[in-house]
Amino acid sequence: MHKGVLALCKRLAAFLMTKNRPTLELQNRKWICDLAFLVNITNHLNSHNKTLQGKDLIILDLLARVKASRFPEAASQRIICSLSDVRACEKEFLTFLTPFDVNTEEVAEHLRMEIIKLQCYDAFHGKFKLSTPLEFWRSVAATGTYPAPVRDSLRIPTLFGLTYPCEQLFSKMKYAKCKTRSLLTDQHLDDTLLLASFSNTPDIDRLLGGRQHQSSH
Fold this sequence. Notes:
Helices cover about 65% and strands about 0% of the residues. It is mainly alpha-helical. Helix 12 (about 165-175) packs across helix 13 (about 185-195). Mean pLDDT is about 80; it is low at about 75-80.
């Protein structure tokens, strides 16, 4: 509900009186107060909802923003999907966020030895301080070491916290597969959606560098 409706309550009441259609609610102070509360909470919910939308947001970012919000979990549950399931995985998230501070006694048994070895490796301490958790685990994955914690940690960014990315992809698919492209195959549709959802800018010059251009006749 827009703030403009609340601001125009007195004018709306006067206008309806001129039309011989008096509205008692618009003259009731308690009803106006309830309306003001509804407008206020709706605007806050809309603002909170927008902070949870956007690219490159992983489920941990969403959980942190829900915790930082001024709304109770009951209201936030309607914005973030399966919040109770997310809460159940918080110990796994600690391994991803703070691998060098996590208590190894609370780590899953199949990860414990590799996490202990990782914590003893001073070179990775420096890398972790200079990068985000996702960049850090990607760099560890590139070394081919500690496969178990790497596998579990890189799984976390793939978790969907919202339906927003899915809705974006379906919107792009709607434009890609339209009536004028009825002969589009599933493979071509997959390739089109992959390009549409790819965030990096392709290096066209490098891609064309090894190609033989058509010579003039």
